[in-house]
Amino acid sequence: MTKIKLFIATSIDGYIAREDGALDWLYAIPNPGQTDHGYADFYKEIDTVIMGRTTYEEILGFGVEWPYPDCQTYVVTSDEFYEVKTPNTSVLNRLKKKTIEPVKGKSKSNIWVVGGGKIITAFLNLGLIDEMLLSIIPTILGRGIPLFPDAPKETLFELENAETFETGVVNLIYRGKPNQKP
């Protein structure tokens, strides 16, 4: 059964980027063994990615090859005339359960909600996130773009696993608790 998953890095104080969107702090921690913190294993389990337009444009601005060539990508934007620039990419103009169900139906594996924070909160508020993998980076930013902006609704999750790495990163895997109200 297809699951909708969030895999995202966050600072200890809950930010996913600096105020200007910069991600330099993610690479500031020493990583002599080039540990990928579970990314490769996670990526093998997905075939669809969903992201907000700002995240999409940020990735395009990295000046690298499109990192999701084997996945169907959906960009969420309210701009109905928005043109995507990458292969296997479509636009979702509305983020509702009824617009996600066909996406979920087409997926043969799992769906990754890539970001940003507003999209993550929207998925939470719709009750659509089945699993969260949070990579806690041992950094306090003090301010930035929050992981859960715009007052997400109270949602119960159950800790499935915690994994530590020599880099100081901790991965926390939470599973949604279906049919339970907080």
Automatic annotation (TrEMBL):
What are the GO BP annotations of this UniProt entry?
A: riboflavin biosynthetic process; tetrahydrofolate biosynthetic process
- Listed GO molecular functions? 5-amino-6-(5-phosphoribosylamino)uracil reductase activity; dihydrofolate reductase activity
- Name of the protein this chain belongs to: Dihydrofolate reductase
Pfam families listed in its UniProt record: RibD_C (PF01872)
| Domain DHFR as annotated: residue spans | 1-182
